[in-house]
Design goal:
mainly alpha; single chain; 72% helix
C-alpha cells in the first residue's frame, strides 16, 4: 500500500467521517459498507500517483466524488414503481390463484367446477359427471384426508353431499320405483313402511356399512338410528294396514 503524508491521511479520515455523518440519519443506508467501498475506491484511484500521497492529489480524487452531504438520496436503491390498479387487482390476483391451483387447491376447485356444471344438466351428460366427481371426492376423503383443511374440505364435501343424498334417497325410496306412479297414497305408505323395516333391521346389524356408504356425513350413525328407522317404518305399516283393511 502506498505511503501517505500525515496531513493527507488525516484529511481523508476526516472526509470519511463526514460521509458517515451524512448517511447515518438514513436507516436504509449502511454507513460502514459505504465508507469501506469509498476507502477502496480512493486507494485504487491513487494507485498510479507517486509516493507519498499528498493532500493535493487526494483532494483531486475526492472532488471527483462530489459533496458527501448530497449522497443520501443518490445512494438509495431505486424505488420500485408503484403497481397499477390492473396489476394489483387482476394480474396479481390471477397469479396468486394460479399458485394455489398448482398446489393443493387444484383438485377441490376442479371438483367444484365440474359439480356446478353437472347439476343443471342432470341427464346423460350430468349424471356421468356427477358419478365421476363423487368417485374422485370419495378417494380424496378416504386416502388423503390430511389434505382437506379449511375451505378445501367443504369444497370436496359438496359433491359428496349430493351423492350421499341421492344414494340415501334411492335406498329409502326404492318402493316408489316399483309403483311407477300407480297405487294410492296408503298403498305407497304400506310399501315404504315395509321397506323401511327391512332396511332398518339390516342397517342395525352392520351400521359401519352405512357409515362407509355415506362417509363423511354418517360417522355418528349407529344401531339406534337404524332401529328408529324400523320403528317409523312399522308405524307407517300399521297405520296404512288399518286404513286399507277398514275399506
Amino acid at each position: 500500500m502506498k505511503t501517505w503524508t500525515p496531513d493527507a491521511s488525516e484529511h481523508f479520515e476526516s472526509w470519511l467521517g463526514s460521509v458517515r455523518l451524512s448517511v447515518a440519519s438514513d436507516p436504509s443506508l449502511d454507513a460502514d459498507d459505504i465508507t469501506q467501498d469509498l476507502r477502496a475506491h480512493v486507494h485504487a484511484e491513487l494507485e498510479a500517483m507517486p509516493e507519498p500521497v499528498t493532500i493535493g492529489a487526494l483532494d483531486r480524487v475526492l472532488d471527483s466524488l462530489g459533496n458527501p452531504s448530497q449522497w443520501s438520496e443518490t445512494l438509495k436503491p431505486p424505488a420500485e414503481p408503484s403497481a397499477s390498479w390492473f396489476q394489483r387487482h387482476v394480474t396479481d390476483v390471477v397469479a396468486e390463484w394460479q399458485k394455489r391451483l398448482a398446489g393443493d387447491w387444484g383438485l377441490p376447485v376442479m371438483l367444484l367446477a365440474v359439480t356446478v356444471l353437472a347439476i343443471p344438466t342432470f341427464d346423460w351428460i350430468g349424471t356421468p359427471l356427477l358419478l365421476l366427481v363423487y368417485f374422485v371426492a370419495r378417494a380424496q376423503v378416504n386416502y388423503a384426508p390430511q389434505s382437506l383443511t379449511g375451505h378445501k374440505k367443504w369444497i370436496v364435501y359438496f359433491p359428496l353431499a349430493i351423492g350421499a343424498g341421492v344414494l340415501a334417497g334411492l335406498v329409502l325410496g326404492f318402493p316408489l320405483t316399483l309403483l311407477n306412479g300407480n297405487g294410492n297414497s296408503f298403498e305407497t305408505m304400506w310399501m315404504l313402511g315395509s321397506w323401511w323395516v327391512v332396511v332398518g333391521v339390516l342397517a342395525a346389524r352392520d351400521p359401519k356399512r352405512v357409515q362407509s356408504a355415506l362417509k363423511p356425513f354418517a360417522g355418528a350413525f349407529d344401531a339406534s338410528h337404524a332401529r328408529l328407522l324400523s320403528l317409523v317404518g312399522a308405524a307407517f305399516l300399521i297405520a296404512s294396514s288399518v286404513i286399507l283393511l277398514s275399506r
